[in-house]
Amino acid sequence: MKYYIISGEASGDLHGSNLIKELHLLDKETSIRCWGGDKMEAAGATLVKHYKELAFMGFTEVLKNIGTIFKNLRFCKEDILQFQPDAILLIDYPGFNLRIAKWAKSKGFKIIYYISPQVWAWKENRVKMMRQCIDKMICILPFEKTYYKNKWNWEVDYVGHPLVEVIEDFKKNNPALSVNKTQKIIALLPGSRKQEILKKLPIMLQLSNEFSDYQFIVAKAPGLEESFYNELLQPYKNVSWVVNQTYELLSQSTAALVTSGTATLETALFNVPEVICYKGNALSYQIAKRLIHIKYICLVNLIMDKEVVKELIQDELTVENLRHELNELLHNKAKQLQLNTDYATLKNILSSGGHASSNAATAIVDFLGK
Questions:
Q1: Each residue of 23-51: b (16+ CB within 10 Å) or e?
Q2: Could you check whether 2-160+352-369 and 167-351 share the same CATH topology?
Q3: Could you report the per-residue pLDDT of 307-325, keeping only the tens digit for each?
Q4: This prediction's pTM
């Protein structure tokens, strides 16, 4: 089989690489061209375009690079036509991938989408087009299967979440890290963009004065300069930072203060008690509140369909509220026991009878075999 795989972000490169390994196990003759990164290339794919050339985030940046984006789309279409794959595998990255899906379907290619766009949160109007263009949708969040079936009468596959196997592999390769959490560490995961970090991190940092027997460690975003963090952290004695060591940090943490996103799920899979901290621009928040229709902002709570971890959103994110919630995580034994139970249930749901990458590869090969 010949596959053309498109991923435009670091997470897609990671999950794509594990999928490629599983596809090779099922078919030794598999040939793959990809847009992705070093991990997908190392897994055995021919790398056409690196995701670092594609990562344009935010309205302004997209507008500024619109010429490059259209150039990339044209090049991608030409490369697909030249390669003539048996199937095109799209991994998340909806802004680019859904355009390719629409075009590729009109050319008669089989389209398989792995890691669904989060249309259940916003841009729900995309689903009609997706149904027409995507031959096989493979989801990694359990409620997505129900969402597509009940609301859109679309049968999709749920294969489990690929983070489970990624974190299991990390623990297996670093057994000494999580044997004994003897250090008293509070992990701070405030996001990756300057604007969001400036809104949340100063509030998180103020707690370090009150919990002085704990070491507060910030997981620094790789793309941001040291001086940015040093200025924020300088007034506090028991605060430091790490970069590209988030899993090492979570392995040894007693609790964590985490912004919304995939990090909330990673923290839970490391069995670390957490508080969700979100605060954005007031106007942007009001606009988002009207556009995004979901019960929770944290993936842990969305998957479990209840408030497993506390969400402090916008005006609720204050030093007083955060102090109370952190105290609960550190000293309330009943809360700790309930959290352990909920985290175990969460992991079981996300495992879905095996590893997501293996399940996804089998679903793809079986579908194409029919």
A1: bbeeeeebebbbbbbebbbebebebbbbb
A2: yes
A3: 999 999 989 999 999 999 9
A4: 0.90
